[in-house]
Amino acid sequence: MKFPAPLANKVPAITAGFWVTKILTTAMGEDASDFLVHRLGNSPAVLTGLAVFCISLYLQFKASRFNRWIYWFAVSMVSVFGTMAADVLHIGLGIPYSVSAAAFLVTLIASFYIWKRVEGTISISSITTTRRELFYWATVLATFALGTAAGDMTARTWNWGFVSSGFIFAVLFLLPGLAYKALGLQPVLAFWISYVLTRPFGASFADWFGAPKALGGHGWGYGSPALVLTVMIVIMVRFSKSKDSADA
C-alpha cells in the first residue's frame, strides 16, 4: 500500500483546545472500549476496534495535509484500541498492570529513541513526511497503552481509586507546562510528558463515572458517557482552534 507524501504538517497546533479535545478522547476511548467489550465480548470487540483503528489511520495517511476531522477520528480510535490492547494483557492474559505499564514504558522510550535517531527530531511540528508520520502514530499508540495501564495500576492495583488517580494525574499533567514556563523545560519534552499523562488523567475520571459502584465508580455504565463524550469531542473539533496545523 503506497501513501502519498504529506505536503504539510499533519498534526494540529498545540492550543488549549488541543489539550481539552485530547483529554476528552482519552475518556471516550476508555468508556467506549469497556462498552464494546461488555456488549460484544473480548475477541469481537478487539477485532472491531482494530478494524476501525486501521480505517482511521488509512484515512489519516491518505490525506495530503492536516484535516481536523480525520485527525481527531484517528486519535479517538487509537484511544479505543489502545485501551483494548492494555486491557487484553491484564484481563485476557493475566499480566499485572505494573508489568504491562513497565513494558509499554520501555516500548515508548524505544519508539522515541528510534524516531530521534532516524529523523533527528521528535517535534510534532516536523510531521511532514510519511515516515515521520509512521513514527508519530506508533508513539501515540504506545502513549495510550502506557497511560491505560498506568491509570488502572494506580486506581486498582495500588488502590488509589479512580477519583484520586484522576486528580493526581491532572496535577502531573500540568507540571511540565509550568516547568516549561517557569524553568525553561525543553518544550518538546514538556509536550510529550503531558501528552502521556492525558491518558490516565481522562481515563480515570471516565472510569469514576462509568464503573460499577462496587468498583468505586458512580455506576452510570459505559455507553451513555461514551456517547456524551463523543458529542463533546465533535463540538470541540468543530469550534476549537486545534483545527490549525502545527506548522501554521
Low-confidence stretches: 1-6
Order of H and E elements:
HHHHHHHH
- Tell the overall outline: globular
**Sheet with the most strands, sense and barrel status:** none
Would you give an account of this structure?
With 248 residues, this protein is an all-alpha fold. The protein has one domain (16-243). The chain has eight helices and no strands. It has helices at residues 16-40, 42-62, 68-92, 97-119, 130-157, 162-183, 187-210, 223-239. Helix 5 (130-157) crosses helix 7. The longest helix has 28 residues, at 130-157. The chain is globular.
Summarize the structure in short.
This protein has eight helices and no strands. It has 248 residues and is mainly α.
Question: Can you lay out the helices and strands and say which pair or pack?
Answer:
Blueprint (H helix, E strand, L loop, with lengths): L15 H25 L1 H21 L5 H25 L4 H23 L10 H28 L4 H22 L3 H24 L12 H17 L9
Helix pairs in contact: 1-2, 1-3, 1-7, 1-8, 2-3, 3-5, 4-5, 5-6, 5-7, 6-7
